[in-house]
């Protein structure tokens, strides 16, 4: 009986992160070992889940994950490729592309295959940074709310579909989330130089990262103005990062550029981001957040409204962040990534209360609470599987088919007849001597000498005229491979076959999405050119 009571007391103590006074056979060393065991198990399971997520990711999300990172790193490393209008007009810094491009040096040194492994290694690098950030977040929550809330918050943020879906991707949003979590630890631990350096680095990569820290103004002032030394350190580190970034961009742009200033002018002063889509002011509240945290949105909103005093810090960050971002006409759910940890903290704490109450007091109905929690986690995991392995999954196998088919060719011609920036062409279809044709696009007034500039909706393009203009009756200019969506296949086949002595077939059809939208088709198809077989008599 004594051992059973002691065991229950130990478990309750770990659950509440309370400092138990050792009694009976429970020593303080035993308690410490139990806590460390929990931390190690949490680290292992967290690492394993993220590794699984990045390994089995087969889908695409937005053009930025390729054209603002991988393609830029490709162009820097190989000296060829294509840079989008943001790089032409200096809206982006080269820091992040150089970061995700680090695996290129490894691949070249060890003569490892390209490009599939480059994309995988780049995502692993981003995933490692996210893993570090989430571990910092976990220990911060444990220190603030206890190990019970910390464990559940880590479980919730790890299983949240959108974090698993976007976290390992080569997006500056993912970089922003990870660096914010690391910087938060530096802030509350009082490491002024490391905190300022992290925030400054995040700012030059993604200028809107400063919006997240507006809510932390009191805490920031408390460490910056704590002493004269802290203030001088802040100025020195912040200016050093900005100046270093200026020199870096000066080297790669070849001219003085302030990307963070150009970014601010384009998005906030000129308001040009509205060209990419406009949503209502409250869109984040009624659509953005619910689509990310799913069933948990009921608990999150209810708790923040009913019990705001307990979560005043998290509520302050969420409200200020959403308020500022709501004034920007263009909205995307990936912009909400920085405040997801605040939601996960609140959900971890409230679910901890429910689960503990059910375990201790509700003996007959505890299964209801545990089932409800399991349902929320299962729904998130199901969404993760769907978006990482099913939705928009046709690009990857189609590019693999073209890579394998063009590997032995000396100068393959590859066409991508899909909406602009549907895939990072040079990275996914790497060939040292290939010729590519694909569509590009830019906002009004930012057009430049870009190949095949797409004006308006892709479906409005006359592909027959495009094919005729590109080939010019010269059969040597005809493509060896054509990658396209299923709704364009027949038009393109008829146009190519109308040219004498050219024959094409559909050599690959891959499911892409169950929900075709805009100019995105249900299937991705690959057309292969059938070259005539030359006999010995014909050669003679």
Distance N to C terminus = 99 Å
Strand content: 5-15%
Radius of gyration: 27 Å
List the strand order in the largest sheet.
2-1-3-5-4
Arithmetic mean pLDDT:
86
**Structural class, from helix and strand content?**
mainly alpha
- The total beta strand count reads 5
- Low-pLDDT sequence parts: 6-32, 533-540
Number of helices: 25
* Helix and strand element order: HHHHHHHHHHHHHHHHHHHHHEHEHEHEEH
| Sheet with most strands | 5 strands, mixed
Shape: globular
Q: What is the percent of helical residues?
A: 55-70%
Describe this structure in words.
The protein has 540 residues and is mainly α. It is built from 25 helices and 5 strands. It has helices at residues 2-16, 28-55, 64-78, 85-88, 95-100, 102-109, 116-145, 147-159, 161-166, 172-189, 192-205, 210-213, 217-224, 228-253, 259-269, 283-293, 297-306, 312-326, 340-360, 366-389, 395-406, 425-428, 463-471, 489-497, 536-539, and strands at residues 413-417, 435-438, 481-485, 504-511, 523-529. A 5-stranded mixed β-sheet has the order 2-1-3-5-4, sandwiched between helices. Helix 2 (28-55) runs antiparallel to helix 7 (116-145) and helix 18 runs antiparallel to helix 19. It is globular. The termini are far apart. Mean pLDDT is 86; it is low at 6-32 and 533-540.
In brief, what are we looking at here?
The protein has helices at 2-16, 28-55, 64-78, 85-88, 95-100, 102-109, 116-145, 147-159, 161-166, 172-189, 192-205, 210-213, 217-224, 228-253, 259-269, 283-293, 297-306, 312-326, 340-360, 366-389, 395-406, 425-428, 463-471, 489-497, 536-539; strands spanning 413-417, 435-438, 481-485, 504-511, 523-529.
